[in-house]
Write a structure and sequence with these properties.
The protein is an alpha/beta fold. The protein contains 5 helices and 12 strands.
Length: 283
Amino acid sequence: MFSRILCALLTLLVLAACQPLPRPFEDQEKESNELLTLANRAGVLVTPIEGAPDPGALAEAIAAELRRLDVPATTRTGASNALRLGGRTQIVQVDGPRDELTISWLLTLANGVLAGGPPTSLQVPREAWAAASPEALREIAKLAAPELVDLIEGDRPASRPGPALAVWAVDGAPGDGAVSLKAALERSLRRAGYRVLAEIVDDGLVVSGAIHTRPAGNGRQRVTIVWSILSSDGTELGQIEQENVIVAGLLDGPWGEIARQIAAAAIEGITEVLQQVQAGKAS
């Protein structure tokens, strides 16, 4: 599905320049045969998910998606210093071809302390779930993984100097983009070393997003995402723009991986704007 995305450009308005992005909507598989070694990251052992039609296959799908989000994860036992992530599924049959699936998560920390995360809830195709369809398991993993990253990584200390950032819900987003893209950008900013707060503070800055869509012909639509950097009093300090021509309706449901890739692609431009804002204050 992501391969049908036709183009992606990021425009830095404050620089009046245009540059291509590194294919922000395409899957980028991480190596899958062992725990990755990443700075300040604990390895995660994903254990078979209880109650799933194929507990091991769902665990591997979760581990693969965590790796793709830069979290070192494996289903191989023997990693003595690894965190342990387990889950238990509950399925409720409803009318129609889909059932309600809930997965409760439990993370065992290196010191033995248990931490529970928010459950993953979604509708799954009944036959695909019963057959442990690889495609269905991947979709479940893509939905669950972003919140599992938050559970695994916990609070990350900010490494960049400068004001704290607050991210507003994205205005005009179809599907669940208003929430999922906001959350994805918050995660990307934290990973980039920024201090991200849930509320606006007097000496902080705000990242505000807005999405506009229009037909592009031949079953496609042009999607423009504008990120504005604002002072706490609402003054606009800079702006970047992402523009994509995509298959019409692609964003009408859950954004999942698309939100992560858009957010990751926006970080470089947002960083340039923030650096200019700081330089302007210092001059």
